Amino acid sequence: MNERLVVVDDEPHNMDILRIFLKSLHYTVYEAVCGSEALEMIDQVAPDLILLDVMMPDISGFEVCRQLNERPDFDIPIIFLSAKVQKEDVLRGLHVGAHDYLTKPFDLDLLEKKVALALQYRKKLVSLRKDNIRLESMAFKDGLTGLFNRFYLSNVMRKHEEGLIRFQTVMMLDIDRFKEINDVYGHLYGDTVLESVARIISAATDPRTDIVIRYGGDEFLVLFSESGERSGTVAESIRTAISALSFEPEVKSMFSITVSIGLFQVTKEQPLEILLSRADYALFKAKHSGRNQISNE
């Protein structure tokens, strides 16, 4: 075992017993003798479990527990070890967010079992949180290309509306004659084309400043948060790299693909829907001017 336990007790005799016993079970033990020291140590150590006395010289254990459980995403189980044995004390401890409550003098066998159960609970909680993060990430990603999807775009639009993020350039990209590729070579090759285009866009953009979204079908969207002419350079590098791609199906002749790109440089604060429509109009001009080109709006 390598679980980290923070033990908080101002009685040296109690601390000695807990230290020796818990270390014999191969837990890593960190000690605090008052509430303020406990709060500082918990921030530093990020333990898997807290064993907390109630009566301490500065902040009571009840108050320490209450403060910790008011923190967003706090999920460390707390077991009270207290000489306060009245029913009201036990209920108060559970009310402020404790996982369990043991009264002193405590039975070491019972303590061992309670600690093991609390740590099992902690492991399940951490695993569930990781699963939730993974599922949330999957909900925002396009299954074929791995890019962000329209659902994520809705989230971005909300943040833009709230003023949390701003964009300097919006780029719309569309694969030229993509329907013909699907009709002639099949949807599996169509998917291969989409994946290849997505890889090129991802390689040309910077995830720290750019957001790349599969807008729908064979359309892609890039939102640039940086100003300047970088977006035009990125757009040209994407167009050039895609036009150099070639595919050779088993029963058809080799084919290549091109893309049309529309760019809109943001000049004032506007709803993101307006920015998207302006970039979409620029893309429309690129399409109707011969394809395989970049148009600015």
Automatic annotation (TrEMBL):
It comes from the Bacteria. Gene3D superfamilies: 3.30.70.270, 3.40.50.2300. The modification 4-aspartylphosphate is found at D53. CDD domains: GGDEF, REC_OmpR. Transmembrane segments: none annotated. Keywords: Phosphoprotein. The keyword Phosphoprotein applies. InterPro entries: CheY-like_superfamily, Diguanylate_Cyclase, GGDEF_dom, Nucleotide_cyclase, Rev_trsase/Diguanyl_cyclase, Sig_transdc_resp-reg_receiver. Residues 4-119 form the Response regulatory domain. Residues 166-297 form the GGDEF domain. The keyword Phosphoprotein applies. PANTHER family: DIGUANYLATE CYCLASE DGCM-RELATED (PTHR45138:SF9), REGULATORY COMPONENTS OF SENSORY TRANSDUCTION SYSTEM (PTHR45138). This is Diguanylate cyclase (GGDEF)-like protein. It comes from Paenibacillus eucommiae.
